[in-house]
Write the C-alpha cells for this entry.
Amino acid sequence: MVNNRKTILIADDDADYLFQLKFHLEKMGFDVVTAESQREAENVLKNLKPDLAILDLMMENEDSGFILSYKLKRMYPHVPVIIATAVSAETGMSFGISSEQERQWIKADLYLEKGIRPDQLQREILKLLKV
Amino acid sequence: MEVLDILVVDDEPGIRSGVSRILKNFTVSYPFLDDDIGFNIIEAATGEEAIESISKSVPAVVLLDNKLPGIQGVDVLKYINENHPYILVMMITSYASLELAVKATNAGAYDFVPKPFTPQELKSSIENITKHYFLRHMTRKLHSEGKQVRFQFLTLLSHELKSPLNAVEGYLKMMQEKQAGDSIDSYMEFIDRLLSRINSMRNLIIDLLDLTHIESGKRQRTLREIDVTLVARSAIETMTPLAIQRDVSLSLDALSPVFMLADSNDMEILFNNLISNAVKYNVTGGWVRCSINKENEIVVVSVSDSGIGIDPDDLPKLFQEFTRIKNPLSKNVTGSGLGLSIVKRIIDLYGATIDVESQPGKGSTFRVTFPLPSGQVINGGI
C-alpha cells in the first residue's frame, strides 16, 4: 500500500498556494514535495524523480515554469508536467506557448489556470498518471 | 496603413526571400489601432551588413539568425541593445541551439522562432511582436504626455493584488467545505495564514500609496532645513519592536545634527524603508548601523547590516517594482516588493545617488549621497 503512493513535486513562489495545493493533494492520497522557487525545484530534482510535477509559471523568472519543465523532461522524459498559471487570462500577457514548436521544447503535458477546483485537478492528475 | 520596417538578417538567401514573400501582403490589425499595419522587408546577409543598414535607417523589428558567416547574431544583438534599445529583436534559430535562443532572450531578444518555420508560424510571431511594438509605443507616448499609465506596472500590480485574494479565498473555501474536519481547532493554521496574508496586503497598499504619492508629485512637498538625524532616530524607534523580536541591535552614528533641505515625509519614508530592510533581512544576534555625515555640504546617509546579503546576480533587479529577492534565507521575510523602488523614486527626486555593497552571508551597506543643495529641488512630478 505504502509503496504505491505517488510523489508529486509542486513548485510555486506563493507559500499559501503551495500550502493549499499540498493540503488538497495529500488528501487525495499523494506524497507531496514542495519547492518555493525555480532554483529550489532544480535542487530537489537532482535527488528525486517525482511521479508528476505541477509547476508555477512565474517564479523568480517570468518563464521559470517553462525552463523547469524543459530541464525536468531532459532528466525524466516520462514524468508528466502540469504548468499552472494565474497570469495569462487575467492580464492578457502572452507567454508565447502558441506554436507547436514551442510546445515541443517545453514539453509540458498540460497547461492549467490556477483556481481550478480540486476535484477537476484530481481528474487531470489521474489521467496523466494513467491510474 | 502604417508600415513597419523589418530587417531580416540571414545568410541563406532562401530564408530572406521566403520571409519577404510571406510578409509582402500580410497585414495585422488591432482593435486599439485605427489603421492596419503592413510590413516592408529589408534584407542583410551578414551581421556587418545588418549593422550598416541599422545605422542608416532604424527598423522596428530585426529577425536575426545567430549563425552568420562573420560576426555572430549575438554580437548584432549586443550592438542593437547598446545603440537602439527600442528595436525588437526576434532570433531565428534551429532546434539544436534552443538553449542559445533562451540565452539570447535573456540577453534582450524579444522572442525567437525556431527554424524551419511555416508561413503561419512566422505570421503569428510577427503579429505578436507587432502588437508588443505598438503597446510599447503607446506606453511611451502616454508617458511622454504625462499620463501616469504604465502597462507593465499595472499588470504586475494586478498580479500582486490578486494573489493574496486568491490565497484568502482558497482558505475560506477549504473552511466552508470543512476540508479539515468539524473542529474549529483544526483550522487555526489556516486562520493564522489568512490573517498574515491580509496584513501583507495592507502593507502593500500602504507602500503603493507612498509610491503613487511620490510618483504623481501631487502631494505638496514642504522643503525646509530639517535635521535628518532626528528623522533617522524616529525611524529607528519605529523599528525597535521588530528588532527586539529578531534580536538585532540598532545604532545611530551621528555626532551632531545634520541639516539639509528636504521634505520630512520623504525622508521618513526613505529611512523607514532602508532601516526596516536591514532589520528584516538580518540574522539572529545581528546589528544595523545607520550613519549620517555631512562634508563640504554633501550629506551621506549609510545603512549597514550584518544580514544575509545579496547575491551579485540579484543586484540589478534590486530597485525594480515587485522584486523580492528570494532565497532560503529570505523565505520568511514579508514585504510588498515596493520598498526599494520607493527609495529609488525619492532619491531620483532629490538628484541623489545610491550605492549598494553586499556580500552574501556577511551583510549589506546602502549608501545614499545627496548632492549639494541647489535650491531648485523637485516640486511637481518626475
User: Anything to note?
Assistant: Chain B has three domains: 2-144, 151-216, 224-370. The two ends of chain B are 35 Å apart (CA to CA).
